[in-house]
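FORM 7B: Structural annotation worksheet

SECTION A. Query
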Amino acid sequence: MLQTQVIKAQVVRQNVGALRFFALATFVGSSYGVYWYKAQANKLEQLYSQVQSDIEEWKPISIRGRNAKVYPWALPGKINQWEYKLVSLYGYFRDERFFVRRQREGRDGYIVLAPFITSIFNPHFDKSPEKQTNSQVIVNLGWVPIENQSDIKMSQDPLGTTPIEELVDVPEYDGFTEFYKDPQNMEEDQQFPYVQFTGLIRKGEEQNLFRRKVNFMKEGVYNYIDLWLLSRFFRSFNLRESSTAYVERIVQAYDEESENLYPIPATKDNFDKVTTPARYNNYSTFFGVTALTSLVLSLL
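SECTION B. Predicted structure
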């Protein structure tokens, strides 16, 4: 009888010891989680603050000449250096649009994407438009509420674009882009006006089942920006460059009563954020509570 009680006491001590060890290990792991997520939140806050300052300062990097043909952010190992940089691009929008679902302030809507031609190439032996091989970048024009999707018009210049007539630094001819100041970019019997706009370089998005970022191609429902898919949809000749990054159109301000408001362009206050510091802070708080609970259990 006494021997049985001793054995039971040893088993209890072993179980308690194992639970304390597990609680202590959980405390250590959760403490690291607090540190890591807090560091990520601080990093994002600093990044977004810097982006806002750059937009307020409004000194975009001009992408002209050779850079308009071979994008510097698409060079090997350069995308991280260029992400969130403010750039100005010169060229013309093609009359195609693509819609990706996105909520803003609790409202359902769409991000509107379009191809923007930054250079053209016509083989010397054939000047026909259908033989052109163009360099193009995908542009996030802005956001439109779901009930206003029909307000998006193909031939309408988005807010914040500057027409060629108002630009003073455009050469008569650019040998890299093959752009003439007098537009000669005929495409399918249509003449598209040259414009200049400003935007942020952004990486594409990835599928995430937990955050419902899944594209259903058969149903025509798209929930995240898949640059490889979009590059093929827009028939990009420069697949590698156009699938490396897109440009989010940015304006300093806009008139909410404007007739051609939609799609609503991004500003320093509402540019698209893949995630937010608050999200990381919530994770940090969760791990903090877990760490404190585990510490208390390990001391019992």
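SECTION C. Observations
Strands lie at 61-63, 86-93, 98-101, 109-119, 135-145, 162-163, 173-174, 179-180, 195-203, 245-249. The longest strand covers residues 109-119.

SECTION D. Sign-off
Analyst initials: ____
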